[in-house]
Every structure is written in structure tokens, then in C-alpha cells.
Amino acid sequence: MATLTQDVKQLVQEKAKAIRVSIVQSVTAAKSGHPGGSLSIADVMALLYYVEMNVDPANPKAPNRDRFVLSKGHAAPALYATLAEKGYFPKEELLNLRKIDHMLQGHPDMKHIPGVDMSSGSLGQGLSVAVGMAAVGKYDKKDYRVYTLCGDGEIQEGQIWEAAMWAGFKKLDNLVVVVDNNNLQIDGAVDEVCSPYPIDKKFEAFNFHVINIDGNDFDQIRAAFKEARETKGMPTAIIAKTVKGKGVSFMENVCDWHGKAPNDEQYEVAMADLEKVGEALCQK
Questions:
Q1: How far is the CA of 159 from the CAs of 124, 154, 155, 207, in angstroms?
Q2: Domain parsing of the chain, residue ranges
Q3: Fold category of 6-282 in CATH
Q4: Over the stretch 236-267, which tens digit does the pLDDT of each residue have?
Q5: What is the mean pLDDT of residues 185-212?
Q6: Helix, strand or coil for residue 157?
Q7: Three-class SS of residue 178?
Q8: Separation between Cα atoms, residue 55 and residue 5, nearest integer Å
Q9: Could you report the per-residue pLDDT of 152-184, keeping only the tens digit for each?
Q10: Buried b / exposed e along 153-166 (16+ C-beta atoms within 10 A)
Q11: Which neighbouring-strand residues pair with 212?
Q12: Could you report how far apart the first and last alpha carbons of the chain are, in Å?
């Protein structure tokens, strides 16, 4: 089914809320980080790890596992929160984000963090890696799938389109690219800094099957991943329109929260906002 059952939807809603709480907690503890673009992708991450992907925290290097590459590596707090919630490592470790003597660096590190399939952070490079993973899967006749998440500001990088051209040419239907389209990057609105629009038409030009969704709507996310699985002979790009800073009132759609941590007072407001989200879920 494309739509989620009520029980599964409740689960992913709760997990997305928990991921957002952990994002705010970890960035606040580190006194640095990127909360805005991490909060915007929490719903996609929850759906990926709890519904869509074939992964097992007890066997993080399983050969036939699905792969995930966080191309916009600065959104590491979202990936770390998801992995901890899923059970790859203790949630307490999230409070050690960016501490020099702990494993959770400012960007994902595949050598030291369980569940991280690729080190990332240099913008524009993650899609190339994901394309390589998908190609190897095809060559080896494996049935695992590869997912990568790019930022809409990140796709201003030329390497993105070189990778997209090759993926489309090679008909990598085991590859799914999610573009976090929150329309804000560090310097301002994406369409004012260097507009990549129309994003969907660009991916279509590179022989991708393209799906436009509300990236904060679980039913739409689920339906898009299902459609991607059913698409044969071409890779899929999901253009997910999201809200930067989603769930925290003073961060939503505010560019300034791309890369800074809340102070103590702001932290309390953020926790109160996310608690209201949890209360609303309990009432459903």
C-alpha cells in the first residue's frame, strides 16, 4: 500500500519527533552545528529508516543492506539522531556531538560511526558516491537500493549534474535521490543566491523519473518511495518541499538558523515546541 497504516504512521510521527528533539539537544550541547536543515529532513529520515530501507543495526555492514548517503553532510545531526534512535549506538552519545574525543564529528565519518555508509561534507560529492554504489549493485546483480539526500543549495554544484547525467544514462533504477527543497541556504533564499529552479525539469532532462512531494507529509513520502521502487529503467529523484527548521517555531523558514546553536533560553522554547508536537500525537 502507498499510504501508511495508522499504526505505522503513528510510529514514524513519534520517531520524527524524537529525531527532532535529539537534533536540538545535540546541537545545543555542542554549541555549534546545523539545526535548520537537519530539522527539515527529520520526516524523510524517519520514514527511510523505519519503513523504507532494509537495514539492521545489529549488522550495520550487511552486504545486502540498503545504502544511504547524506550528501548534504552538514545535516549530520539528523542522521546521527536517526541512527541512535534506530539503535546503532546509544542516544547518550548524541550529547558528545563535535567533541574531539568522541566519534560524532561535525560531518559523517564512515570509519568511526556505526550505520554511516559514506563520509560526506564536501558539497556536491555525495550523489557521485551514491551513483557508484548503485552501479556496483547492478554490476554484482544485487538487489539492494541506494538512497541519497541532497540540499537544494547543494545542487548548485556542477558535480551533482555530472553524476545525474551518468546515473540516467546507465538507467540506475536502484538509485533514489531526495532533494531537500527548503529554499534556504547559508547565504539566503536559494532562488535569490543561484536559482536551481525548475529542479524537476533538470532531473527529467538527465533521464530521471521525478516526483514532487511535500517532504513533511508522511503519506506523500511513503507514496513517493513506493513509486520509486516500481519505476524501472531509470533512477528516481524526489523533490521534497520542506520547511527549514520544521517543528521549532522560531527556526522555521529563517535562514539564520542554517548553522548556529540555540542558547539556553531558545533551547527551552524549542523543547516546548516539540513537546506540543508530542502531545498532539498522543491525542490522535
A1: 6, 10, 8, 16
A2: 6-282
A3: Rossmann fold (3.40.50)
A4: 999 999 999 999 999 999 999 999 999 999 99
A5: 97
A6: coil
A7: strand
A8: 21
A9: 999 999 999 999 999 999 999 999 999 999 999
A10: bbbbbebbbebbeb
A11: 239
A12: 22
